[in-house]
Predict the structure.
Amino acid sequence: MNIVSVENLNLTYEEKGNKNHILKDISFEVEKGEILGIVGLSGAGKTSLLRTLNLLHKPDNGKIIFEQEDITKLNEKTVIPIRKKIGVVFQHFNLFRNKNVYNNIAFPLLLEKIDKEEIKKRVEKIADEIGLTERLNAYPSQLSGGEQQRVGIARSIITNPDLILLDEPTSALDPMITKIILDLVLDISIKRGLTIITVTHDMDVVKRICDKVAYLKKGTLSFFGETHEFFASLTTKEVSEFENEFLTDFEKIKKRESDEKKFIRVVFWGANTHESVIWDTAKDMDINVNILYGKIEELKKGPFGSLILEISGKQSMNFIKNLKEKVYYLEVI
Ligand SMILES: Nc1ncnc2c1ncn2[C@@H]1O[C@H](COP(=O)(O)OP(=O)(O)OP(=O)(O)O)[C@@H](O)[C@H]1O
Ligand SMILES: [Mg+2]
C-alpha cells in the first residue's frame, strides 16, 4: 500500500523578481515500510523536494497524497496533525544548542504537553534503543557528529511518526560512524515499520538501505525505481560521476583504443550474480575475454555485480549476443 504518492509536483522559487523553476513535474510513490533514496548532483533540488513533502515549501501545483489525503490542500492549522506523523532530520542536525540531549529528544512531546512521567519513559526507551543513555545530560557542543545525528533521529521518531524524512544523514561522518547510523536507520525502519525518505550523495547509503531510488537531474526526475535497476540504468559517465573509483578505471579503459576490441559493461543481479556465466558463454568460442573492472556488492535486496569486459576475436558479436540473454543488463561502451 502506498503511504505517499506525489503527482505532477512543481515548485518555483522567487528571488529578486526572478522565477526559478526548481521541481519539474515530479511523480512517484512510496510504499509503507520502504526506504526511498533521493539522489542527484548538488543543486538538483533534493532538499527542496524533501521540504516540499513536509509542506515547508508550498508547491505551485501537483498533489502530495499522504495516507490517502492530499496534504497540499491543508492550511497552517489543519496541517498540524499531519506534521506529527512526519518526522524530519535536516541537513545540519538543527539541534537546540542550549538544551541537553534529554530535552532535545523530548522537545516534540513537551510541545504536545504530554505528562512528564510518560515523556521520561519514552525518552529513556529511545535513548536506550539508539545508544545515547550515557549522553542524556550532555549538550550538543559536547557531542560527536555521529552522536548529534543520533539525537536528531531520536527526536524525529519520538512522536511515533509513520514517515521520516532525512536530509544527508551521513554527510560529514566517517565510514565507521556512517555504518553505525545506517544500521540504526535500518533497524528502526524494520522494528517500527517506518517508511523513510532520505536524501543522500553517498552511494553506499543507497546500496545498504534503499529499496528504491529517485534520481533528480536539474529538478527533473530522471529515474524512479528499484535500487538495482537504478545502478544498472546509469550510463558509464553517470557511474563515474557518482563513484570515483570507477572513474579512474573507466578513463584508463577509454585510452586503450583499438578497432578489433570491443568493450562491454555487464550487470548481474540476484541469484545468478555469482555464476560463471561469462566463462560458460565464452567456452567454445574463438574469442579472448579480459575483465578490466569488476565488483560485486551487496545491495539491500541482494548481490549486484558490474563488470567491464574487453573482447576480441572473430566471434565477439556472437558472444555479446549470447551473453546479453543471460545477464541482467549489457551495453557496448
Ligand atoms: N529558499 C530558496 N530560495 C531560492 N532558491 C533556492 C532556495 N533553496 C534552494 N534554492 C535553489 O534551488 C536549487 C536546488 O536547491 P536544493 O537545496 O534543493 O539542492 P540539493 O539538491 O539539495 O543540493 P545539495 O546536494 O547541494 O544539498 C539550487 O539552485 C538552490 O540555489
Ligand atoms: Mg541539499
